[in-house]
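Give me a protein, keeping tokens residue-aligned:
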Amino acid sequence: YPWRHTPETQLSEFNLTEIEAMLGSYTKVLFVRDPFQRLISTFMQGMGSSPSFSSFVQDILASGQHNASVAWKPLVSLCRPCLIQYDYVVMFGFLRQELGHLLRRAGLPVDSLLPEFTDTQVRWTYRWLSEQMFSELSLQQKKQLSHFYHRDLAAFPFSSSFLSD
């Protein structure tokens, strides 16, 4: 359906037959990241106007899921993994390994296309940063965040997420 496809076209603008035809003709890849790490990244990039991480989280919780920015909205509500059969789910923190596999499956040369990733360093840094940021939150905020992201935590294996507890 290229005549109706523009960069701004939302999938919801097509009828069910068109959606099934389009999704069946693409290789669908979903990149997922621990929701707590997404929050930290968004805060560190200055996308919130709050002076502290705790107040940033409080602003997010007060706005609710329906008014949430794409930067911190739960992935399940953005990507609909229960409705769309993704061919690959790539976890942040394992990018080099998973992208290499994905490129090989697509028949593309792996070495010339993959940038250098430092997954181990990234995981260690985010672990340390997560501990610092998580300690700023009240028990109530931690519980509310876990509830806010409960569908993401159930859908994806974020076993080391601070929100999983």
In short: Residues 11-155 form one domain. The longest strand covers residues 29-32.
